[in-house]
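We modelled the chain as a single entity of 217 amino acids. Its sequence is:
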Amino acid sequence: MSVYNHPIIAREGWPYLFGLGILALFIWKFVGVYPSIPIWIVFVFVLQFFRDPPRLVPLEENAILAPADGRIVAVEKTFDPYAKRDALKISIFMNVFNVHSNRVAVNGRIKSIEYFPGKFFNADLDKASTDNERNAVVIDSNGHDITLVQVAGLIARRILCYARVGDFVKKGERYGFIRFGSRVDVYMPLDAEPLVSVGDTVYATKTLLAILTHLDS
């Protein structure tokens, strides 16, 4: 996977910011200051949405890191349909004010990537995990399957994933982006020890979601 040096503002936002900036300046110059204010407000909103700050990676070897910023909406045992096993699932809901850059949760090799078209229910709902448009990445992390699922939300209409099958990835690497509100589901082994609860606020890379209770040699 190509290296992406975080430039503070995600590259996905550059075309939007450029277009809005040109439009706002044009209106300011040829129409007036006050008519340009709504465009500047939209510009500031888009600027904060596409922010992409660098993150330090925790040193805990057996930790599963949060792949996204947001609020925990589920911690439950369920079936992982992508790796075909029973698993512990932790779900993160991302609202429009969260950083939407998605980061790798574990070191490992990407085993599979599957894209599923679907609906656009509110990503805060449980049925979003199975009914919404989504993209699933299964990572073999030292013998453990860790599945990261990008789920589109109510107004999200574009899931971006830059990883490829066979890529070796590292914790904290940027692997995708979801535009304008979404959800990320993380499936992990049943014996993983969760470190978060429903309602907790988490931050991509910085927050430890769970600890693998054993590592294969």
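As a brief sanity check on the tokenised model: DSSP finds three helices and 16 strands in the chain. Helices lie at 14-30, 33-49, 128-131.
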